[in-house]
Write a sequence for this structure.
């Protein structure tokens, strides 16, 4: 959270975005996405590129009922999964994976450690039917929550147990799971699950929350809370028939300005994509002024923007954890010296002009006969 805030503040400074390109310059990231993604993949790519990294993308799709990575040996030649991942680790500093099976990211990380390699892995969501987690989205959600309530990231932790969040509609998906563990277990907030029947948080999560003493409750009606976090009805894994049954029965919930007023939601979040057919968060195009799209409580727009900065912080924490952003100015200056006085050894930078004497390691720079000072002395002598 602190690093994300530092990045957002640094970007606003003169030359901030330009200097950040030095933070991970020369590093490389590969996105390996078995499943479709818009926000997570594009925000991850933009985050890495904004830190000066090269980004490659490996896309997957559903083939004969199974997720496959297109144009890879996994797809066309039946290659072993870990062999392929270790190949990517050999070429890239960071593997950012969205996996269809729970634990695949962790499996890669363990194998990297076992072999003594120096790669890193980000879990950008795992699981096929809501059973996994989505850690970086949970971080973006909590960062958005902090900003919405003006909570000081370093000082206001004691305030957090006073807040509650209502999870609405699908309460067993991976975003809700990661949010629950972070907001409830780590931060002590109260969790209210407003579920469609059959989409309650699973027993494994409930037991973990109970063991940690988290305050949570399960409801089949909307509940008042400080924040609402809405999910779509997941047709992609529930199936079209079950989804249509839920929509026709009216068991799903829709949140509008009127709903937010009635239940006291100071902010409304949605990890997207929103399901227009399900009407869980009606757009301005669909319902006009009743929509939250142009309301200050529409925190879902902030979530999307914050996703990039949170992922920048995650990448920095892995690849350059000791970096002080203010030192990037010195790094830029240090890298800008492009020639050296052959007489006194002073260096020249287009940014700072002629500097002071430097170490011998700069002797590989092109040598000029004289710097400005040496030229004056030379002219006086002649």
């Amino acid at each position: 959270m602190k690093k994300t805030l530092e990045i957002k503040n640094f970007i606003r400074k003169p030359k901030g975005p330009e200097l950040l390109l030095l933070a991970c310059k020369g590093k490389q990231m590969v996105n390996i996405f078995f499943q479709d993604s818009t926000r997570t993949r594009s925000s991850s790519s933009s985050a890495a590129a904004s830190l000066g990294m090269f980004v490659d993308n490996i896309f997957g799709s559903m083939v004969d009922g199974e997720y496959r990575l297109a144009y890879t040996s996994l797809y066309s030649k039946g290659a072993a999964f870990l062999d392929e991942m270790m190949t990517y680790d050999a070429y890239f500093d960071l593997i950012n994976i969205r996996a269809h099976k729970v634990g695949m990211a962790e499996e890669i990380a363990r194998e990297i450690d076992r072999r003594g390699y120096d790669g890193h892995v980000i879990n950008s969501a795992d699981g096929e039917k809501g059973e996994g987690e989505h850690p970086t989205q949970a971080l973006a959600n909590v960062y958005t929550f902090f900003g919405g309530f003006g909570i000081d990231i370093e000082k206001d932790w004691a305030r957090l147990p006073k807040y509650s969040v209502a999870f609405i509609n699908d309460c067993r998906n991976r975003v809700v799971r990661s949010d629950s563990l972070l907001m409830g277990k780590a931060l002590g907030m109260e969790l209210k699950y407003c579920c469609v029947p059959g989409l309650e948080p699973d027993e494994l999560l409930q037991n973990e929350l109970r063991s940690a003493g988290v305050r949570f409750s399960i409801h089949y009606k909307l509940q008042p809370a400080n924040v609402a976090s809405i999910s779509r009805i997941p047709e992609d894994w529930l199936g079209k028939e079950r989804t249509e049954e839920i929509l026709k029965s009216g068991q799903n919930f829709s949140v509008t300005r009127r709903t937010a007023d009635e239940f006291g939601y100071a902010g409304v979040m949605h990890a997207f994509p929103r399901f227009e057919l399900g009407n869980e968060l009606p757009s301005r195009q669909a319902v006009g002024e009743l929509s939250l799209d142009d309301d200050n409580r529409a925190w879902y727009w902030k979530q999307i923007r914050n996703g990039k900065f949170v992922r920048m912080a995650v990448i920095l924490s892995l690849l350059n954890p000791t970096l002080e952003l203010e030192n990037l100015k010195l790094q830029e200056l240090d890298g800008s010296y492009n020639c050296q006085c052959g007489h006194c050894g002073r260096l020249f930078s287009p940014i700072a002009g002629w500097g002071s004497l430097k170490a011998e390691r700069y002797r590989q720079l092109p040598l000029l006969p004289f710097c400005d000072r040496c030229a004056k002395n030379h002219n006086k002598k002649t």
In short: The chain has a mean pLDDT of 92. The longest helix spans residues 299-319.
